[in-house]
Amino acid sequence: MDMADFLPPITRSLSLSLSLSLSLSLHTEQRRRNRSRDDAMDRMRPNAANRSPLTPLGFLERTATVYGDCPSVVYHRTVYTWSQTLRRCLRLASSLCSLGISRGDVVSVLAPNVPAMYEMHFGVPMSGAVLNTINIRLDARTISVLLHHSGSKLVFVDPLSLPLLRDALRFLPHSHQPPRVVPIEDPDEENAKSSDLFAAGGGLTYEKLIEMGDPEFNWVRPKSEWDPMVLNYTSGTTSAPKGVVHCHRGLFIITVDSLIDWSVPKRPVYLWTLPMFHANGWSYPWGIAAAGGTNICLRRFDSATIYAALATHRVTHMCGAPVVLNMLANAPDSARKPLPGPVQILTAGAPPPAAVLHRAEALGFSISHGYGLTETAGLAVSCAWKGEWDRLPAAERARLKARQGVRTLAMAEIDVIDGSTGESVKRDGATLGEIVLRGGCVMLGYLKDEEATSRAVRQDGWFYTGDVGVMHADGYVEIKDRSKDVIISGGENLSSVEVESVLYGHPAVNEAAVVARPDEYWGETPCAFVSIKEGMAAPPTEAEVIAWCRERMPRYMVPKTVVFKPELPKTSTGKIQKYVLREMAKAMASPRPSRM
Predict the structure, then answer these.
(1) Span 145-181, pLDDT tens digits
(2) Contacts of 66 (CB under 8 A, 6+ apart)
(3) What is the CA radius of gyration of the chain?
(4) How many alpha carbons fall within 13 Å on the CB side of residue 364?
(5) At a CB cut-off of 8 Å and minimum separation 6, what does 335 contact?
(6) Domains along the sequence of the chain with CATH
(7) What are the pLDDT digits (tens) for 32-42?
(8) 414/381 Cα distance (integer angstroms)
């Protein structure tokens, strides 16, 4: 019971009035203090000490200080330390500026994974220029389109790509000022004669530029972290290029994100099987610098070359498309060497078949799987592994690892949405939708193409990937196809990736790709292109492969046609060129109408 109940009524009234007055006064004072605090918080602004633009270029300076005498780049007999790499990159930036290259100019490079290619990922943007790495397997006409579209001021070219570049320059419009050509020396290549290179560059070569530059050059820092730093053209470019532009901020974020997500330790030994010209090697030129690691450069490789490099250099990390996993898993015994220790492989670029993952891990490789696009500068989704999955059977582990996974730390959100409603699809692992993303490493946009940019980055705040996928009940995303690769057979949406995954489980199949073949009755039917493993005494027939598939998938998904090829056409990054196979399938006569 309250003591106020024993007070006279008038006393209780006065007490209540005083209490209310005091409460009101305290409330007013509290509001005044809150306003004062809020005003103080509102006055907090970026200052000169905390608004330095984010850029991955600064990683090189720190690493040269911490790991200056440690090896940075290894290529045949050439070995550089991190302090040497910093000086070479500063010299390169200095010389580019002396040639008249200024902030925002595009500098292109046509080269494989050689030391100069690695150095340009720092040296070119350190001059204020925008780095444009070009796929060395493109044809001359396409390269000319890219040079014209980008307005490239200077092109560094590998000696073996010099004839290709010369042809490309001939296709440039007469009105276009051709870029300056600077050849890159390679003493380990017999066909790279120094006299020819000297003449091609008008007396200037890459090493000459390095020699001329200032090792103490005060490199050109971005005015804003949103300043463009790289320009990458999407794979499959033809006459309508899509030039993806990324800024310093986005590349800083994706680089740090990639190191955290893959748990890259200090001083890894990284083998360059992933081309640096493909989405800037998924940001790892800057990432390996940040970790103080060693870059093992390879101009070209096969399974024997990879196994030898793993053993010789005691490699700890490497990246590659699923085709590289397949190469390692199916390598002949004569090419294989014992692994020097745990070798971490990060794979992306296409959904890896579970059967390939299983075979590669059985050899001792530890595989991580992710998903990204040129437009995200690296991996935006990764199959984050759960400890309890280690207790599952090997086949089930491989099936789970084949999923793309969850967003990485740098991605704000990811979803799978219904294209007609814009709503999230059911989390049932079966309902198809388009994968959409938003986060700090999404591109600035497509160069000189506002229409394509607005189609990809829409007003609802999502970046639309064009990839078809499902969302599982546990929140993990799984790609089912590119939107253009979905096969519509008899009104059913059919995932070519699912059919390929089953085909890879066939003991005789080395590679598999499934595309749509026009059909008078069904509209489209699955057409499988496969290559057979070497040394097969009795390769399977088309009927045997089809019968094998019928035992393992619904009848409507079973390929109606199987075409055997010695090797499937691929891009330089190992992606199977489905558009080539689609044209081959279209060229086939439509099969006679039949029921499944």
Answers:
(1) 999 999 999 999 999 999 999 999 999 998 889 999 9
(2) 292
(3) 29
(4) 11
(5) 302, 303, 304, 307
(6) 490-587 (3.30.300.30)
(7) 777 777 777 78
(8) 8
